[in-house]
Design a protein that fits this description.
By secondary structure, the protein is of the alpha/beta class. The protein is built from eight helices and twelve strands. The strands form three sheets. A five-stranded parallel sheet has the order 2-1-3-4-5, with helices on both faces. The chain has a four-stranded antiparallel sheet with strand order 6-7-8-9, covered by helices on one side. Strands 10-12-11 form a three-stranded antiparallel sheet. It starts with 13 loop residues before the first strand and ends in a 5-residue tail after the last strand.
Length: 237
Amino acid sequence: MAPSDGAGGWDDVRVLVVEDESRLAALLVQVLTEEGWSASAVYDGASGLAAVRAGGVDVVVLDWMLPDLEGPAVLQRLRAEGHAVPVLMLTARTALEDRVAALDVGADDHLAKPFEVAELLARLRALHRRANPSVVAAQRAGDLVVDPQTRRAFRGPTEVVLTAREFDILALLLREAGRTVTRYRILDEVWDGDTDIASNVIDVHVGRLRGKIDGPFGRNAVQTLRGVGYRLDPAGG
């Protein structure tokens, strides 16, 4: 069961901070610990990569600019290896193309520096909630199967590795298979309303999702209804 929001209820949630500014890293670990999280920090990309590979990490706060191996490179390797741990990318870059680049390599959310600690904590809580849903039965459309409990997705016997955001979009579309899901609903349920509907962030994630569950299998399950939203073919495409 996911812990409740608030101090004292997150002590079993392990947060890894990957940040080369030692003072900021120490501050984040201190704040997270005071809020009841279990937090630790490493200071370069290679150490962050090794820590996630070793297991025992529930959420990652990953800085973009790191010595030896930058955040996007770390994330690219983790996703290529099948690690679906939720990742919040910290970046001083605020241009749209930089935000899209972070999402393209597998970030589940991003936060621009400087930021308010309260917003960081809220985003981490949202990421963890989405990664740990209540127990529900597996859902399917044709040979496309999603198990919300284990957060695994399959095309027939083949497992499809998805990021936390991609999984949440797919689970929502599958729950509403055959019906149109508006961009506003995706924004509200997957992003908690915390992004700009005018941006192409949703489109980027849906495009990446389609590239994983449809393209390699010659299917067309996720359909775009221009100006409205998306629909998942109940037959699985």
